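[Target chain]
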Amino acid sequence: MESAYTTQAGGATNNGAIPLAGSAAKGTGDTQTPPLFNLTPRRILIEAPHMLVWEMITAVGQGQLPGSESTARLVERKSDTVLIAEFVTRSGDKTYTTLEEMTLYPPDRITYSHLNGPLPYVWEEIKLRPDGANHTLLLYKGEFRTKSVLGYLLGPLYIRPRFDKLVLEHLGEIKRAAEARAQRSIKYRAQ
């Protein structure tokens, strides 16, 4: 059986920055676009049915995951598939607050676009795949941009390791909560 926490190869080159077109022309006064960094893709095997995991991830503002200090609050429901949510994430002595647009592609894909937060651009995606009887494979990928060209150094050395750690903590919380709920669930236990 595959480990519950495995990592795919990121495929990024050198420091993981994706080169962008439009770098500054010398003497024009233009500034260089800060680099784009890939977060570490994740594959998490969850011993719970696919639809249970989907329900838990998309239930924004309907309670906290057991054992988590992080919270999610539904700010606006733009449609059945587009939600605006505020996430407050705690990790160690740090607290990060983000406003995110969640786009739901039922029953197996969710994207998150950060509208406000500590980084000017973040995009994340979660895909869910049934994996045998009562198992779900959660696939995660994401990317971010820093606020300045200085982020070219800070991105891979400081920001990406912290962001990757937060993602792994959060996915672990989802895994533990979904597996615990699957054990208690009458609805999903028989599937």
In short: The chain is about 25% helix and 35% strand. The helical segments are 50-58, 151-184, 186-189. Residues 1-30 have pLDDT under 50 and may be disordered.
